[in-house]
Amino acid sequence: ARWGASxxxxxxxxxxxxxxxxxxxxxxxxxPVRYLVPPRVEQxxxxxxxYR
Length: 52
Fold this sequence. Notes:
The chain is an all-alpha fold. The chain has helices at 20-28, 39-48. It has a domain at 19-52. It has two helices and no strands.
C-alpha cells in the first residue's frame, strides 16, 4: 500500500482516567458519554439499550 502525501499529526493531550464503571453509571443516569467513548461504541450502547 502506498500512503502518498499522507500526514500524521501527534498531539500532546492530557490523560483521562475513565473506568468502565463510570461509563455504565453515566449511561444509567442518562448523562452523556459522547467524549468518553468512540462514536460507534456510544451508538451500540444506545441501540442495544445497555446499562439502563
